[in-house]
């Protein structure tokens, strides 16, 4: 089972959740979600743009855990910025999920070219005030976007979900999040299992700690206070990716992983992504 982190509204969020982007069709995803809950996952991360909210919703219904013990995140896509479009997109997400509330609703990208993320955020504030999203947050927001929300709106995001892994450690943005009471949550925490899986430092640590490279990387995240949503559609990896709370990396070894940073961003640049 995963540990939790307190959000700035007092609610608890599991530190480890399941990412579901490109995790299969609705049938296989429904099975995967139910299996993940069985394996101890309590947070499921989806988004309107993944086209899989119906599969996630079915998996949640099939899981043998009460709804209030699960934490469901979804996100408003870039084509629905602006108050009315966001409120409509949220209703459509709830409908597809088959739920009457989500635990966390995120603005997926700031889309600065549209310059409507402040208004979009205010729509999320309305949704939160109605209790239909227990917490609200953002994704891919840079310091400048967060500063603008702070200046022009009344609510601090509970979460900022950003691309983050040992090759892109995002120290400045994490620092800004922390000072402002925003929990940083890493997407692509394994950098989609690319070069990290052959990294010499991580291979050495995996051998020494007798853990997989994925577990070393994911432990580095949670030990750094970063929430994570690793994606796997391989049932055997579900247990592996959540078995992170029975070992500790020594400070020197944490520093070795910190030093792997290369500011290597594989996803889009949030300052220009539309
Ligand atoms: N907010 C955003 O803009 C944004 C953007 C991208 C993603 N996300 C969210 O973040 C989640 C995770 O990110 P991601 O899917 O990009 O990348 P990721 O979680 O870093 O990596 C997923 C890849 O790693 C493999 N993998 C998982 N566990 C493994 C293990 N123990 N050993 C070896 N390989 C392993 C998976 O393969 P198998 O599936 O074949 O096991 C898959 O190919 C997404 O699913 C989505 O929910 C959000």
UniProtKB/TrEMBL annotation:
Keyword set, alphabetical order: NADP, Oxidoreductase
Residues that coordinate or bind substrate: 108
Enzyme Commission numbers on file: 1.1.1.346
Cleavable signal peptide: none
Family from the record: Belongs to the aldo/keto reductase family.
Span of domain NADP-dependent oxidoreductase: 16-261
Superkingdom of origin: Bacteria
One Gene Ontology molecular-function label: oxidoreductase activity, acting on the CH-OH group of donors, NAD or NADP as acceptor
Protein name: 2,5-diketo-D-gluconate reductase A
Record site: Lowers pKa of active site Tyr: 75
Catalytic-site annotation from UniProt: 50
A Pfam family per the record: Aldo_ket_red
């Amino acid at each position: 089972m995963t540990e939790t982190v307190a959000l700035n509204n007092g609610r608890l969020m599991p530190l480890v959740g399941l990412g579901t982007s490109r995790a299969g069709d609705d049938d296989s995803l429904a099975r995967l979600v139910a299996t993940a809950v069985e394996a101890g996952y309590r947070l499921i991360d989806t988004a309107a743009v993944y086209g899989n909210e119906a599969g996630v919703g079915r998996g949640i219904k099939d899981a043998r855990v009460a709804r209030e013990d699960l934490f469901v995140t979804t996100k408003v896509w870039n084509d629905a910025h602006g108050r009315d479009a966001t409120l409509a997109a949220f209703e459509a997400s709830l409908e597809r999920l088959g739920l009457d509330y989500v635990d966390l609703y995120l603005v997926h990208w700031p889309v600065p070219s549209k310059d409507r993320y402040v208004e979009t955020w205010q729509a999320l504030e309305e949704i939160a005030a109605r209790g239909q999203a227990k917490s609200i947050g953002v994704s891919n927001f840079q310091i400048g976007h967060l500063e603008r929300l702070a200046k022009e709106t009344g609510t601090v995001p509970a979460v900022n979900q950003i691309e983050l892994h040992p090759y892109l450690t995002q120290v400045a943005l994490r620092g800004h999040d922390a000072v402002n009471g925003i929990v940083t949550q890493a997407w692509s925490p394994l950098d989609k299992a690319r070069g990290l899986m052959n990294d010499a430092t991580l291979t050495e640590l995996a051998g020494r700690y007798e853990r997989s490279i994925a577990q070393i990387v994911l432990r580095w995240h949670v030990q750094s206070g970063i929430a994570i949503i690793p994606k796997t559609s391989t049932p055997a990896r579900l247990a592996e990716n959540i078995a992170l709370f029975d070992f500790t990396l020594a400070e020197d070894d944490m520093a070795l992983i910190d030093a792997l940073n290369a500011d290597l961003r594989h996803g889009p640049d949030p300052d220009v992504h539309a």
